[in-house]
Amino acid sequence: MSQASASYMAREPSRADTVYEQLKRDIAEFRLLPGDRFTEANICTQQQVSRTPVRQALFRLRQEGVVEVHFRSGWEVKPFDFEKFDHLYDLRILLESTAVQRLCQTEDQSQTNRSGQGVDLSVLASQAQIWMVPESERCTDRSQVAVWDEEFHLALVQAIGNPEMLRVHRDVTERIRSVRRMDFTLQDRIQATYTEHTSILTAVIAHDVTTATALLLGHIQASQAQVRSITLHQIHQARRLASA
Fold first, then answer.
1. What are the tens digits of pLDDT across the range 232-243?
2. Long-range pairs for 48-56: beta carbons < 8 A, 24 or more residues apart
3. For residue 175, what are the CA distances in angstroms to 2, 28, 64, 178?
4. Structural domain boundaries enclosing 200
5. How many CA atoms lie within 13 A of 112 on its CB side?
6. Which of 74, 172, 204, 219 could make an SS bond with 196 (beta carbons 3.0 to 4.6 A apart)?
């Protein structure tokens, strides 16, 4: 086998990965509702795979707190935990607020802030090219804006040069992704995201720590409230359709 072929095979998702991603989509899009029960055999039939990759995928989801197993009665999608959701958002706010404060301490292009940590200002420049554009040039593709939104908030933490903070932020991002992306099901939230990201960047570039921190907090909290409302509505609608 050639080195190129070996490299390709190393990157190719396993069957367990494929089952895992499909189950996560089914749960995130409420095809599997909180409280729904199912068996490994059900998933094997639906996805046309053997039990081993299904079991691997389910135990991975169990570790993430998405599903739980019941002795002799299969698996269950865990009820949506709004308290855990709020805790993760609290952690996200703490990480990003700290990042914004340190970015605002960067006085010049020396790329060090007052605490002596390295700062990569080019990360912010690349974000400005996406968000600080005329309204006529704004993207309306919900999926793309959702990806860019994650990258924007990740960039704030990445720019301060603290790999441990970045690692934790990536983990939080992964754990809230399924609900967070509901924020972009409404067109006005896409426009609000452009406006709010631009305002945050403008304040950071101006070293206005008070304004930048307040804008960031308001932005995240507005999104948090919106996705909570949409999640409750989606669960209600899915249950109503299922019962009909």
1. 777 777 777 777
2. 49/15, 49/18, 49/19, 50/15, 52/16, 53/14, 53/15, 53/16, 53/18, 53/19, 54/16, 54/19, 56/16, 56/19, 56/20
3. 37, 11, 8, 8
4. 82-240
5. 5
6. 219
Based on the domain organization, do 102 and 17 belong to the same domain? no
116 and 234 assigned to the same domain: yes
Same structural domain, 114 and 222: yes
- Calpha distance 72→69 (Å, rounded): 9
pTM score, whole prediction: 0.73
Reduced to 3 states, what is the DSSP secondary structure of residue 69? strand
User: What band does 109 get if pLDDT is binned at 50, 70 and 90?
Assistant: very low
CA distance 33 to 28: 9
Query: Does 111 have pLDDT greater than 60?
Result: no
Residue 48 one-letter amino acid:
Q
Token pair listed for 114: 């007052």
Q: Which of 77, 111, 132 is the last residue in one of the domains?
A: 77
Least confident of 21-25, 124-128, 174-178, 193-197: 174-178
Residue 175 above 50 pLDDT? yes
Beta strands in the chain (DSSP E): 37-38, 67-70, 74-77
CA–CA separation, 91 vs 31, rounded Å?
29
* Domain limit, last residue, from 23, 53, 77: 77
Residues 57 and 162 in one domain: no
Q: Are residues 135 and 207 in the same domain?
A: yes
